[in-house]
Amino acid sequence: MNESGNHEDGEIRATRFRNLPSVNSLSQEELIVTQPENTELLSSIRRRVQTSSEKIETGSLNVLSAKYESLDYDTCENYLLLDEERKKGYRFIVKKSLARWFIFLLIGVVTALIACAIDISIEELSQLKYASLSKYVDEYVTQGKLHIPYFFWVLYNIIPVLIGSTLVAYVEPIAAGSGIPQVKCYLNGVKIPRVVRIKTLFVKSVGVVCSVVGGLAGGKEGPMIHSGAVVAAGLSQGKSTTFRRDFKIFKFFREDHEKRDFVSGGAAAGVSAAFGAPVGGVLFSLEEGTSFWNQSLTWRTFFASVISTFTLNVVLSTYHGVPGDLSYPGLLNLGKFENFSYKVYELPIFLVMGALGGLSGALWNHINYKLSVFRMRYIRKRWLKVIEACIVAAVSATLGFLMMFLLNDCKPLGQDPTKYPTQLYCQDGQYNVLASIWFQTPEASVRSLFHDPPSTHNATSLAFFVLVYFFLSSWTFGLASSNGLFIPTLLTGAAWGRLISVGLFRVIPDAVLIHPGKYALIGAAAQLGGVVRMTISLTVIIMETTGNISFALPLILTLIAAKWTGDFFNEGIYDTLIQLSGVPLLPWEPPPLVHNIYASEVMSHPVVTLKCVENVGHIVELLKLTTYNGFPVVDPPLTDQSEVTTYGRIRGLVLRSQLIVILKKKIFNENSDFWEDINAGIFRDEYPRYPTIEQVSVSEVEKTYSIDLRPFMNPSPYTVLHSASLPRMFRLFRALGLRHLPIVNDTNEVIGMVTRKDLARYRVWRHRGRMGVEELLISKEI
Amino acid sequence: MNESGNHEDGEIRATRFRNLPSVNSLSQEELIVTQPENTELLSSIRRRVQTSSEKIETGSLNVLSAKYESLDYDTCENYLLLDEERKKGYRFIVKKSLARWFIFLLIGVVTALIACAIDISIEELSQLKYASLSKYVDEYVTQGKLHIPYFFWVLYNIIPVLIGSTLVAYVEPIAAGSGIPQVKCYLNGVKIPRVVRIKTLFVKSVGVVCSVVGGLAGGKEGPMIHSGAVVAAGLSQGKSTTFRRDFKIFKFFREDHEKRDFVSGGAAAGVSAAFGAPVGGVLFSLEEGTSFWNQSLTWRTFFASVISTFTLNVVLSTYHGVPGDLSYPGLLNLGKFENFSYKVYELPIFLVMGALGGLSGALWNHINYKLSVFRMRYIRKRWLKVIEACIVAAVSATLGFLMMFLLNDCKPLGQDPTKYPTQLYCQDGQYNVLASIWFQTPEASVRSLFHDPPSTHNATSLAFFVLVYFFLSSWTFGLASSNGLFIPTLLTGAAWGRLISVGLFRVIPDAVLIHPGKYALIGAAAQLGGVVRMTISLTVIIMETTGNISFALPLILTLIAAKWTGDFFNEGIYDTLIQLSGVPLLPWEPPPLVHNIYASEVMSHPVVTLKCVENVGHIVELLKLTTYNGFPVVDPPLTDQSEVTTYGRIRGLVLRSQLIVILKKKIFNENSDFWEDINAGIFRDEYPRYPTIEQVSVSEVEKTYSIDLRPFMNPSPYTVLHSASLPRMFRLFRALGLRHLPIVNDTNEVIGMVTRKDLARYRVWRHRGRMGVEELLISKEI
Question: What residue intervals traverse the membrane (chains A, B) (predicted)?
């Protein structure tokens, strides 16, 4: 049957505008192809992808990589699942639910313990480092031999950074950076290779300690979130590929759906451990990962987050010498804001600061983007990456040293919150303020800027500090070292926020309300909002980590202003990095005004289909020739009647992984004596790393055998008509976490397939107030 | 074509177990019916529903009412919409987005102002009332004429309650109770008639002031949440049916999808105003309403919530004499918990208290359920309802009076937090503690129990108070008066929590940590958790309203224990009330182990379908004879070929409301000169109250005309195959907020229709640790 034969609404379809370039837009004629039984066709499909990728430039934000696969959130309701359900019954449901709660408890505890280990290592090592540096400076300054402490500082920076970046560059490159973009992609439903492996966790944890101790302008928060995700993935699966151990527990959670749920709990526990913000953690997970709000999952996520904060507080309160005092304010990362109020007339000031943060965040992102492109082009060798990290470490020390040395900002001792007051060139009884900022971890510096009494810092020092730290942090993020950007960004923002309060104080000297700490907080939020553009979770995280609930409105106004201003110029840094790596992330909503793009344009076609009972040799050949991960199972097209159909009618959907397991287990119709042992477990045993088709040996005789796919396939996959619009497919795909969406014609015959990349290809394009929809290329190159 | 002809998987389907009763389970033969062109068939459908409803008893929780309709969250992507999009372009998208933000701002402000009005009215009137009562008591006690203050008390209770309950019973019965169940249903996607009308708002606001001033054991929080929802619905639509005014603004928001988004923002703003808990408000909306997490909606919701808290704080801080001090702790409803810590060994105590709360909450729910059933049976007349409310008001006064009088609990003045210390029989310099609890609003009493210094209350008084208030609040909730259950439940819980701390103090007398306020808080949370079983939002609301972030773990443990214990016996009170009224609420997830129930069993059939070009007379007849709200549009079944099909192939879906507007506007093929004026606006103009078919006049000549449905229908509705499982349909329906889901056979012909009720009919049944799936009846009786 001619596919366009049933189009009575040609008139309606003619009204859509065709101003969008379309890589695979098709005329109706092109749609009519024969059933793909020959290899010629298969290679033509691959060619199409490759042709479109020829003109890719490094650093393009308009390309999707072909290499990323989707997670599959849809349940395959095949015969085996029904069989299992029937055998297990309700008691099993209860048992599974209890196991889930238990795993979430474990996730919370383990994530917190790792966070504690990172925290305490950083604290102890930094104390050693800065105590000795401070001593050296005061010792050698009188002798005029300041090059000696400088030399030690550079050394103390380079050694840990060298260790950390060597680990990252040579052992596990995915552990570089904060890990938040990777976790975000995973929660969005994209498989990022190796992102939740134990090796990654190890490199990340050691790496983050090294880079923070090494004095890089980086924080430990992002890596902690990533750690939580890895812990969750590891614990829930009851086996480890890195250690080649299978503990034979939690087998029922070995599927994409369950694993992603646990990872979202782990990410929340990570946020909770990093910031002491359980509600913020839940909101982070929801904001980044959830397409379908699931109350019980959210509830368990909250539980893991709370357990994580609790464990962290128990350990850290003991470490700080107040065991069991779980409301000790020192446990809040950024210190407790108390008796903190604002007046209505300050709100416009906060708005302006938000806009400033948006501007400066956009600039930061632009610089970081350019650096990333530069790195992608020229710093490709591993040893070059390590050297770059070491150079940044040395430059950090140098800049810090120069600032202390040149800006001799002295304040009397006494109202001093730093542990190692360094005198440098100050008079007796005074200390160098800049040394006290540089001779501590960035987190402690944020705390200083938030809570130091007014007039601790003078304007010149702050201005220089902002400038230096702004560029340093932008240079640091993206190095081959594990560190996040939360703390350095907060630090930059806190510094300029405090600078603004100094300015305001000069204009309105009697404004008693202008507590510099408050402005530092607003500046920090504005800068962070301008860089990452995260929204609700960020507000809540800042509220929780400062222990101040009544400050929601100023924060939210600042963050909105920062986001809107920043969005005028570019995307948030995480989104930029994700686009740079070509990950097909699905946004929250379909682009606007694309109801006139139809499935028939979006879909990939022709589709490679299988028959319900299929020849083994054909399957093997197909799996070797294509890279497709899902195959519609169809009734063969009818040719013996008056009506000739060119497509098969859909009967189900079978996955590559299922086919491979079937081939490996040799579940052929001719081996029917095997059949008793077959249950849904055989697929879970291989999860998540199925063998490739090359690893499965099928003899020539077996290639003449056949497989009955019906017990294994998903018998009723979601499908849509070829006339469905892009937003309609998008919503279905996003809300249900699909991986494959077969497109059918009026008589339910499969004519195409839509996957994540086909949908992610259409993107809103928003720049300096203008707006449109663009279509990305899909490339195998990046 | 025979529907079962294509079933090659009969073997697989045979394995499903048939242990579930099915009201309309069908054999394959029954499925084959002819196209419904005759009225005989139509009446047979109605008969089937009525037959199944014959055995309904009042108070059954296993019946769904047939009268509730769904909201439609799916966009109808018809020709008119595409046309509109093409004309408006991106500039319009931006304008619409700005308008949305503006409306959310308005929602926040107006909701807060209404909440302030309610708050201040209650405060002022209660002050008048209790000041005079306190004076009377102390005046007449010396004369031994205590019947005089008693008389005044009863009078002061009955008069406001009489006003309030008359308004509710005679003007707008939907304004009774807290309104949370109704808002919950609305957000879930069920149209509850009159729930978001301005008249409802008026009755609710006045009613809640009356009932709280009238001394009923009720709170103002639920009604405030409901107010927020009404405000949102009203503001976003730019017109009011109550006042018959159309402001001709915000016309583009006149559809279910947009309106529900605004209502969810309004509910959040309501929570935020009621409790000063913006994050809790957002979580409440998400928990109750969101099926598809939408970041921009959540962001706007958060904005409305924050604006609401801000406005409330600005007004109330001025009212309390500290204008502009937005962090004045008196603005927190339940007072600020400061310097509040717990030890690890207290956690088991909290768990036990949670379980206790679950038990007592389940009992409370059971009593309230029985009372509701009694009311449904015997208190049906309006005047009876008013009288019952007045009786409760009188009993409340009587019990309070008896307690004060009989339990002469005296404490020395000085550490006294009440405004009107009543001496009663106490010695000079002392005051009656019970009088101080009774002579204030319940909210103030909760505050007293949370913050009164240790040993303010003695065990006997507390025990009596718990007993009295437990039954009184259970009796009060469900009366014909507007009041919520949050505060009375918290009060009961706080009282027994404090009682427990008194007990603990006797066992471990040197336990300095046992601050009774902390135990009051845990008791309050446990009781509330046991009654309503809300989860995350509740935790966050309590955290925010007490200004204490570090107390998350004890709260969450208490609430989990309360929920699990309570769920062992019955459902939460809101769910019980919703089940009692037969609302087809869709839960979060499909029931477990129902993959073996297929669409062909669940669906309603035969389906009444329309042709693409349909006769006007037929449409009018159809609309008069059926109550269906959606009709699949199909190609007429083929009968002129060798293959005879009995069903039509799906082409689209048209709604009753669209048909009525088309008929009203007389958009017939024969009147083609009209066509220029037709745009998507004609449907929005009539929204939300479309005329009935009886109100549309169609002449006999016009009945011979025809309508082309194609420009109006949704051309690609989501459909599933007859072999799709219940969970699969459920997820699709829930995630995308559908109203109609046509079921098709292998060749895309419509063989059935699934609506909300068909899915809500299958429910998890969980009782005393056992579990199963039950199938509810659908009845027109309730």
Answer: 101-122, 150-171, 201-219, 262-286, 298-322, 342-365, 386-407, 459-478, 485-508, 520-542, 549-566
